[in-house]
Amino acid sequence: MEEYSIAAQIWRLSSIDMCELARNSVLMSGHSDQIKKAWLGQQYKEPGVSGNNIRLTNVPNMRIAYRYEVLCEELHLLKLAFHNRHEIYLNQFSLKLLLSKEPKITYYSNNTKELIELPPIPGNGRMGFGLAATDDSKIISVGGHNFNYETMSNVNMLDTKLDKFEWRNLPYMPNGSIGPGVSVIDNVLYVIGGFDFIGNEIVCNGDVLLMDLEKKQWKTLADLDPPRARPLISIIDNKDSPTLIVAGGYNFDEKGKAVPYGKIEEYDMEKKKWKVVVDIPDFKTSNGLATKNNKLYLMDSTNETGENQIIKEYNLLTRKWESSHDIKQSKDRHNVKNQANIKNEESDPNEDGKN
User: Fold this and answer.
1) Less Cβ crowding at N or C end of the chain, within 10 Å?
2) pLDDT tens-place string over residues 61-89
3) Rounded CA separation 11/8 (Å)
4) Angle 15-27/33-40 helices, nearest 10 degrees?
5) Whether 274 contacts 268, CB under 8 Å
């Protein structure tokens, strides 16, 4: 108890912080299952709020929900990864945090088949940040919060082509944000949405920020309404002018539980406001979203392998959904046609050769 009291004075921990510290100490201790149940509750092994007995732990469900949501988000980023040409960037913060005191990011190159450790992201134990990759192999981290639960507006960039890896500062965001949607498109950094931890409440924001990485100046567009965290950001490549879109994301209910936002929206440059394009059917926080070649893919993990599989595809130009069954049939027809063409190409030269 003396060590706990000293820690509370040094780190200025609140009574709730101390209760959470005690709860986690019991969870990670070598005590028997029976003792842990007596101190933490019968369901202590359950993840998130369902495993928290407030009567015994005195830790608010909102805080437990937030911790679990951040962990799920970081592991989700690890699973989806960031594809950039022949390279992949993995955010392994939460996974590494379980094994090490230092948060780490690992850089994996498909060319050399190596995992290369990068220096820790600046920020005193940074969590809940956004992460994106540029076309010229740079990694950008945006916002998040530190171990003191202070929301951060830091933006840092690391060039993986340099011999010495180091994070360099970019201009700070006008406001800090945890869990923003982040993307780099045509050398423009987009930072959209996110949330803040204010007292016992989780408050989402609808900020829409963009920065030309050459000019290094922030600009703003009309806010998202309703505000949300972790939306997917992409561009529709129209003939006239590209259209900025956002898809998915989530906000929080009064208990701190993540509530999915299943819509695709686009930004109207003339009216300077966002408008809904279409609903994302049966969208869940566990779903993955990705875009490529003017198509948006709705994904879910398989029970067998845990890998993501496409369950629906939305054409951003024709504004139509296709189910996984339709996608498979289309691919099958395409494959049969290709095989027939290959056979014809193989047989024609032989016949000509005989004549």
Assistant:
1) C
2) 888 888 887 777 666 555 443 333 333 34
3) 5
4) 160
5) yes
Cα dihedral 330, 332, 334, 340 sign: negative
Question: Is the separation of the CB atoms in 131 and 91 below 8 Å?
Answer: yes
Residue-wise pLDDT tens digits, 130-152: 999 898 889 999 999 887 778 99
Count, residues in the chain: 355
Q: How far apart are CA 243 and CA 265, in angstroms?
A: 10
| Amino acid identity, position 81 | A
- Name the amino acid, one letter, at 299: M
Quote the tokens at residue 157: 């960039």
Nearest to 250 by CA among 175, 179, 190, 176: 179
Neighbours of 354 (CB within 10 A): 6
pLDDT at residue 92 greater than cutoff 60: no
For the chain, residues classed under CATH 2.120.10.80 are 66-318
Please give the Cα distance from 37 to 34 (Å, whole number). 5
User: Distances from the Cα of 151 to the Cαs of 74, 89, 116, 182, 216, in angstroms?
Assistant: 17, 24, 29, 16, 22
Residue listed under structure tokens 């951060």: 152
CATH superfamily of 66-318: Kelch-type beta propeller (2.120.10.80)
Average pLDDT, the chain: 80
3-class SS at 331?
helix
297 in Cβ contact with 313 (< 8 Å): yes
Sheet holding 138-142, edge to edge: 130-133, 138-142, 155-159, 168-170
Q: Which helix (H) or strand (E) holds 72?
A: helix 61-80
With residue 63 as reference, give the H or E element that holds it: helix 61-80
Residue 229 DSSP symbol: B
